[in-house]
Amino acid sequence: MLIHIRFLRLNLFILLLLVYKTNSKLNLKYGILRRTPNLAARNESISFRPRTKYDVQKTMRLMFYKNNTKTLEASAFDEDYLQRGSGCSPSDKFAIVLHGWIQSCADEWSLALIDRLSFYRGGCVICIDYSVIASTSYMRLYTNFENVTGAIVTIILTLIKNGFDVKRGYMFGFSFGGQLASAVGRSLAPQHMMQSIDTCDMAGPGFDPIAVDHSKAGKHVQCFHSSRDKGTFVYSCHRNIMLGSCGLAQPSVASQLHLGSHGLCVDIYINAFDYPFCALNTTPSECIAFQKVAKIPADYTVGYEENFDNRVTGQIFVPTSLHYPYNLSKKELKLLAGKR
Length: 340
Prior knowledge:
Blueprint: H1 2-26, H2 28-34, H3 39-48, H4 53-58, E1 61-66, E2 69-75, E3 94-98, H5 108-120, E4 124-129, H6 131-134, H7 138-143, H8 145-161, E5 169-174, H9 176-188, E6 194-200, E7 218-225, E8 239-243, H10 260-271, E9 314-318, H11 330-339
Helix pairs in contact: 8-9
């Protein structure tokens, strides 16, 4: 009898272990940021959390660029930076660049994007550096999301107050910065509707699966998707560009392991300024369309778009290649389409 009871207890323990393990796997992506922290972690988060967006803004820096030359670095908390030799004029086009977690405006991709925006778009480029907060744990950064958003909104409202026109405005955000770009745009709207917003593999953990209408963030919002593990599964932008394999993985991850499918998104976006990334005119058989598929003209390419074509909206599938610059030629694209 005693042996039988012990055997039942062992089976029950194994069953509970299997249930717990299965549940842990199912909730790994989203559960980490939603679970109740232990007392020590809770106290740590509370002690770190800035009290207001103004405390956050004091830690942020603004990097101004004209003609791909850094003209000024200033505290985001000082409202007189526009009078301190930034070289930016209210009559200029202006672009806002927002980096991600454990990144800054000094990252290689940030500087490369500023270079391409300066060459193709012109005007003033402003990279908002919040690396003091972004260098901490993702959990700490996530708890400050509303404060960082509010601080960036205040910065853009200061630009508007000084004569800058959102109709000439553009905003780019990568990963966590992509979620910020959308939140900032939605906070400014509808009174100040940003002309165009592009995001690259907008962060998913902590934000999904909550449905957000990212199309409300700007007049033209296009979002590039590249990974299944770090990117969002909310596809509500005017355009959702699914890179590589259904927007979930990039073939080039095999040769760029240090970047991963997530990090490759911003490299692909920057390369698209100079190399054609052609879209398929049908949904690949292995992919699922979660949004209407865009009707695209022949030889349509994706990337930064100065004059947004309102006729092209929905999901767009863009295969990518194994090696730099990660695009496929028209011939390769036709061969790929023929195999499907």
